[in-house]
Design goal:
The protein is of the alpha/beta class. It contains 14 helices and six strands. It has a six-stranded parallel beta sheet with strand order 3-2-4-1-5-6, sandwiched between helices.
Length: 312
């Protein structure tokens, strides 16, 4: 076995059938599945994230699912550390890691490397949250523009999460986030095999997205978010509650949207997410690209067989 690990990267937009394909491939290859999804990491957020059913996860375990409480945060840097470790462990067992999901920033950070930014400091973040409540996010964005004008120009004035993170990093390190992000980093020594699910019919994908959201409503999505709100320690600015669907349902439960508006905005936001995901995928070469509307498993297996047989 090569000393250099290999990993398959199964990437595609939401509602493209990534999980089903990963499970099907697991019947033909000795795969360890690793989730690449910034929403599936949260416990108790099952329906709105389209998390695989518990029985499916028992039969086909996915690492990095249900690893955090919704009150916690998780960064691309943390993902890279976790994924690199899991890939190495899978390789040591003589198996093939398959990373599957739609959080393209995580995929990009893993493949190209990133800066070792400090982990979030709960006490400092709580202090920044207090300042946000008292002063407003606009005042914090102005403060950021004074210490890190490059980051302030790049971050929208209303992007609470990114503004707080930039201020947090500055207070932890004494250096602007933009300066730390510009520092050269090295990607992990892993041979990546991209497997891309593209979309030949956007209209059909959009119908899938709407149908899936309406199924979530039938499955009890509203009750799921009601339970999360009832905890009392969650709020709409948390990364977990800003996930597509959750923020619109939260606004509906607070009386800021009608039910019809909530459904419409959640579907539109999910379509916009799919558009951003497809934009990321266009950066990759065409090799390993397959149409999710007409998945041909034999062609995918032939592609993987050739890539896995090639010298590392």
């Amino acid at each position: 076995m090569s000393s250099r690990p290999r990993a398959i990267l199964l990437m595609g937009p939401t509602a493209s059938g990534k999980t089903d394909l990963a499970i099907a491939l697991r019947g033909h290859y000795p795969l360890d599945l690793i989730s690449v999804d910034s929403a599936l990491i949260y416990r108790g957020m099952d329906i709105g994230t389209a998390k695989p059913e518990p029985e499916v996860l028992r039969q086909h375990p996915h690492a990095l699912i249900d690893i955090l409480d919704p009150a916690q945060s998780y960064s691309a840097w943390q993902f890279v550390q976790d994924a690199t470790r899991l890939i190495g462990e899978s390789h040591a067992r003589g198996r093939i890691p398959l990373l599957v999901g739609g959080t393209m920033l995580y995929f990009h950070s893993l493949q190209h490397g990133m800066n070792a930014l400090p982990e979030s400091d709960p006490a400092l973040r709580a202090e920044l949250e207090r300042q946000r409540r008292e002063q407003g996010i606009g005042a914090l964005h102005e403060a950021l523009s004074r210490i890190d004008p490059e980051s302030a120009a790049r971050i929208r004035p209303g992007d609470t999460q990114r503004i707080l993170r930039a201020l947090e990093v500055y207070r932890q390190t004494g250096q602007p986030l933009s300066l730390l992000q510009a520092a050269a980093t090295r990607p992990p020594a892993i041979d990546f095999i991209p497997l891309l699910l593209d979309v030949s019919d956007r209209a059909l994908l959009h119908r899938r997205i709407e149908q899936r959201f309406r199924v979530m409503l039938d499955q009890g999505f509203e009750e799921e978010v009601r339970r999360l709100r009832a905890r009392g320690d969650l709020h709409p600015e948390l990364p977990s509650m800003r996930c597509v669907g959750y923020r619109q349902m939260w606004a509906y439960l607070e009386g800021n949207l009608t039910r019809e508006q909530m459904v419409e905005r959640a579907v539109i936001a999910t379509r916009q997410l799919a558009k951003r995901q497809l934009t990321w995928l266009r950066k990759y070469p065409n090799q390993g690209r397959f149409d999710c509307m007409r998945l041909e498993t034999d062609a995918i297996r032939h592609y993987l067989d050739d890539r896995l047989a090639a010298p590392a």
